[in-house]
Structures are given as structure tokens and as C-alpha cells.
UniProtKB/TrEMBL annotation, chain A:
InterPro entries: MetI-like (IPR000515), MetI-like_sf (IPR035906). Belongs to the binding-protein-dependent transport system permease family. This is ABC transporter permease subunit. Keywords: Cell membrane, Membrane, Transmembrane, Transmembrane helix, Transport. It comes from Rhodobacter flavimaris. Signal peptide: none annotated. CDD domains: TM_PBP2. Pfam families: BPD_transp_1. It is a multi-pass membrane protein. The chain crosses the membrane at residues 49-72, 79-100, 128-152, 187-208, 234-255, 278-303, 327-353, 365-393, 399-420, 449-471, 499-523. PANTHER family: INNER MEMBRANE ABC TRANSPORTER PERMEASE PROTEIN YNJC, MOLYBDENUM TRANSPORT SYSTEM PERMEASE PROTEIN MODB.
UniProtKB/TrEMBL annotation, chain B:
The keyword Transport applies. It comes from Rhodobacter flavimaris. It comes from the Bacteria. Pfam families: ABC_tran. This is ATP-binding cassette domain-containing protein.
Amino acid sequence: MIWLRALVAMLIGAPVLVGVGLTLAAAWGADWAAVLAQPGLWGGLRLTLVTGIGATVLSLALSVPFGLWIMGRPWAARWLAPMLAVPHAALAIGLAFLIAPSGWFGRALAQVLGWAVPPAWPLPGDPYGAALVLGLVLKELPFLLLMTLASASQVDVTGQMAVGRSLGYAPGRVWTRVIWPQLYPGLRLPVFIVLAYGLSVVDMALILGPSHPPTLAVQILRLYTAPEMRQAEASVLAIGLVAMTAALAGIWWLAERACTAFGLMALRRGRRGIARRWPGSVVMAAQGGLFATAIAVLALWSISGSWRFPDRWPEGLSLALWARGDWIAVALRSFWLGLASVSLALTLAVAVLEGEHRAGRPLRLGAIIVAPLLLPQIGFLQGLTTGFLWLGLPAGPLAVIWAEVLFVFPYVLLSLGGPWRALDPDQLRAAASLGAGPWRQLWRVRLPLLARPIAAAAAVGFAVSVAQYLAVLLPGAGRVATLTTEAVALASGADRRVAAVYGLAQAVLPLLAFALALAWPAYGRGGSGGRAP
Amino acid sequence: MTLELHDLCLTAPGAAAPLFAPLSLRIAPGEIACLTGPSGVGKSSLIAGVAGHLPRGFVLSGQVRLNGCDLLTLPPERRGVGVIFQQPLLFQHLSVADNLAFGLSPQVRGRAARRAAVAEALERAGLLDFGPRDPATLSGGQRARVALMRALLARPAALLLDEPFAALDPYLRAGIRDFVAKHLRAAGIPALLASHDAQDAAIARQSLAIAPFGTGR
């Protein structure tokens, strides 16, 4: 299977390595004085740390009690996947339309308090980054909850809960003292992904974060796209962001050990705790409600006619903007890019999993596969674009597809890996004893049996692809317009209605993919086969 | 400390008739009562019902009184009823000693006292040097002993045992059975043992066979 490892290393590992390497090279001759004198550098650094760490810690902290709450409520867990499918940018735009002074909340307050002009609150884009943290938490909490549930499927939660309670512990205590710590190893990688994402997010930071100064990642993007050549300075900061992410991951790891030690000390004291009525339903409803309202308000803006300030509803509805149809070509481009990157990623994932199956052991690709998710995107995507140029791959759709595959492939592999490895080996043995060779086993037995998990993995990958911002902007040199790049560009524009059209289309496209995956017929077992991730 | 079951009746989800005829039982302190009956008759569900872990949909009627106090209205953690399950269900991420420390009653205060109590329990289980070990490295019999010690360290007012020997190798059962009987008597609490193995009834003072509803007792 050496060729398979080489293939993954070349398609996924090499671009990341080359990207970081060329960014480092570009940073070499930088004028350090100019970098450090960059206005807003230190404010941006503080903001990046506060929002990145804040969103990660808050999401994880909320996921602990919510994890317990959602364990016993499968109906609530079903809403996690659609929330995961909605891209960060679409949620950010919807949220901005809610919390802005002339947004829905402002209008509701104005109706009650009799304001004639919008209030002067600095939202979105408050200097503390609170709106950005809120947006990140709304989006990352469902992700961490889904990962908690996936991790919990490996542990006998019901039995351990019964043991803990029969020993006199309140349910919350059993969860935090003994069950959740067993789930955490499965959450570590997702948490690091959330941390790296929060520290380097650009699209959400452009929409919800402050602009004077913006976060470090936004400053880097501005330098990269500045008309005067400031690549070297940008590269220095990009490498700095990579180093900072690595350092924070190290600190996180140390904090983890400290928490484990504290947890063990608390466990040994044996305090039983008291059962509290935890308002889980209320807080969860707030999260889900805010999320859904943000998307609903996008839909409303996209069809609104004139909508003056204190009015709660627009004066009239109009489909004129949708009818204009300029979004269709852009949506189709997002669709084709997604289809291409998912096809490639899915083929590669099937190759890796089948290779692992035939080799009879894991292929030890670990770090290569998740590296694109654990590094700040802006730390290597510009370097990668340079690398593509050297390869003779000009900035454009092909470069974008390759860049997207870097982020789509890990999610497709993680999502397909579980069901793939869980497939009953007897089915394959039965096929083999009927004379089916390895290829026939793959095509006629395994792939049909895994039709639904494959459809689900494809939907996850498609959502990841549609949501990409930097992976389109940089390798496309700004000339490839997708729903995401257009929505982000329009979000700060004057016309909310146009931004809403693109934002909603961006949210709906991956949701359609998820709906299609859910409707995908399972092989033979009347819709109950397979396991969606 | 007496455990009394009075006219206890259990109905499975969606079923019209109860699983078995109303059941009454009185277990004195230090006494072991054994419920026998074929598998599937509802012994495990009955134990779960008394402990408060009944799966959703089951209906338990009748009364369970411990020291005169009605149990069925209390949440499981306030019933003071320890449970030994079919599987020892040791926490895999904790050492053997920490599994015991988790069980140890909060009434034992102070780090030194708590450590000593855990060490004593290990010694009584014949596992003196096993404290730092990973539970996964223990044999089935050793795990069963740790599970019993963990339950007893919580100082329950009564103990329920749901087929505690069923998952053990046959040649281990007699030894563990005696170990359990000895420690239960020493603890001086009422114990209710559910088993489909007639030999388990030997350690019990009283034994009650339950039969599916309608077939008579």
C-alpha cells in the first residue's frame, strides 16, 4: 500500500507542507520593523486570542452539560446535522441582520421603547469581539455535541450512569466526573480543529468581528490582497499565526493534564452533588432558536420590499431579487466546485479505507489527513497558491478544487470511516466464498451496502466545500466567485437584500445535499440501514 | 434496616398484563433473599425498578419501603440502594483504587482517612497491591470483587444484585458467591439477589421463585 500512502501524501500532505514552506520563504526577507509597526497589530493579536480561545472554551464548556441533556433526547440530536450543514458565513450574515442596530432585535426593542432611530450599539463588530464569539459558539457547539454523541457510542453510558447513581451521585456529577472524561479523548481532535478555526477564521470575522483593528487573520488577508506588494509582511504574520496556534495547542494540552489531575482529586473526595433542575431545554432552545431565526431573517430580507427602521415587518414582499437570477451562475459554480472536490475526496477516501482493509492494518496517515484542519488556513493557502503556480497550475477553478479537497477529504474520511470499519466482515467473507474477488467485493457488496453512509459523507463534504472562503479566494486569485465569496463581499455592502439572497442560497445548497443524503435509499433494508455520521 | 416489597407488579412497555403476579417480600438486615425464575421473566427489570433505573415505558406498581420510607418516589441516587449489575461496569479510565474511591461514601472525610478506607477495601477483597492497576488487566473474578467493594463502600442501606455471577466462568462462581455472602452479612444490610441459577439460592435465607403471570406460582 506504499503507493496509496504516497498518493495521500502528495495530494494532501505535500500541498500543506509546500504552502507553509513557501509562506515561510516569503517571510524570510521581510522588513520586521514594518511588520511590528503595522497599525492595530497588538489590538488584533489580543482580539484574536480572546475570540479564538473564548469561543473554543465556551463551546466546549457548554457542550458538557448539553451533551448530557441531548443524550436522552434523540429528537434534539437530529437537529445537529442541519446546523452543521449551514456555512459559517451564512449564519454570520443572518446573525448580523438580527443584532445590528437596525436588525430584528433593534426593531423589536424600538417598537416597545418607542425609538425612532436605530440605537447606537456597536453590533456587529463590537471591539471586544463578543458578536464574533457568539457566532462561533452557535456554529461550533452543534459540532462538538455531534462529536460527543459519536464518542459516547463507544461507551456504555446508560450502565455507567446507573452505577454512578446507585452509588449516590446526582446525574450531572456522574456525567462530569466519570462519563465525560471517557468521552474527551474522542473530542480532543475536534476541539483542536475548533481552536485552529477560531484563531484563524476570516469570513465570520469580516462579518461579525470589529474592523479597527480586525483579527490577525483578517489583517493578514488585507495585506495579502493589498494593491502595494506586502506579501512578505503578510507571510511573517501568517507564520506567526501558525506558531501561535501550535503554542496554544501545547498550552491546551498542558491545561488538559491539569484539569485531569483536578478532576481526579475531586473524584477522590467523593462528594455526591445534588440533582439540579438544569435549564438545559431553555438554553438549548436559545441556541437553536437564535440559529434558526438568523436563517429565517435571511430568508425574509431576501424577499422583502421596502423595510423602514422601526417596522417589524417589511412593507411588501417581492421576488424581484431572486428573479434577477444573477445568483444562479454563482450557485452553479459553488455546486460544480463542490461536486468536483467531493468526488475526488470520496474516491481518495474509498481508496484509503479499502487499502486499509486489504492491508489488514491502519495506513498510519494520521497527521497528514488532519493537518489541513489543524493549521490556520491563512498560514499556508497563499503559499500554496504560489506553489500551484510553480507547478504550472494557474490561479483558477482547478487550483480551488485542489485546495478545497484538502479540507473536504478529512471530513469525508472521518465520516465514512466509522460505518466502513463497522461493516460486518461476514458479508464480505460470504461474497469471497462465492468466488468474488476483492474488486467485486468492493463494487458489488461493500459500496452498495454502504450507500447511505457514502451519501452522508458526500453531503458532509459538500457542505464543507460550499462553506470554503479562503480556499476559494486565494487559490482563485479573487477571480472565482462562489456563493461564499459573494455573500461575504456583499455582507458589508449597502443592500441587505442582495446579501441575504446570496447568504440564503449558501445555506440552502448544503442543506439540500443533506436532505438528498437522508432520502438516499438504503440497500435492501427499507431505509433503516447505514448509520449517518 | 429492612427492605420490604409490597404487591410489586411490573408491566412491560405496551403490554396489557403484568410480567408476573404481585410480589411481596420482607428482607431483614444481614439477610439475603433470592429471586429465581427463568430468564425473561422480569427479574432484572424488577431489580432496576427497585433501584430506580427502569427503562422508559415500564410501569412499576406497588410499594418498596426501606426502613419504613417509600422508595419509589425518590430519584435513584437518593434511595440508598446499591446495585451490582451483571457486568462489573468498572470505569475503564480509572485505576482500581480510584474506582473504589469514587464509590466511597462522602461521610468518610479527609484524604488520609479516605485513602485508608480504600486500602482496607482492597485488602478485604484480596487485592492489596492492585490499587494502581487498570481494571482491564483484572480477571473476571477480581473485577466482580472490586464491583462489590465499590458498592459497599458507598454504605448503601440495601443492596440489589442482578445476576452478578452469570458472566463469570463456572469454576469461579462458587468462590465469588461465598465472598459476596460473607461481605453482605458483615455489612448487615438487606440484600436482594436475582438469579436463574438454583445454586445461587443456596446463600440466601429465603428464596422466591417468580413465574410468568398467569402460570401460577
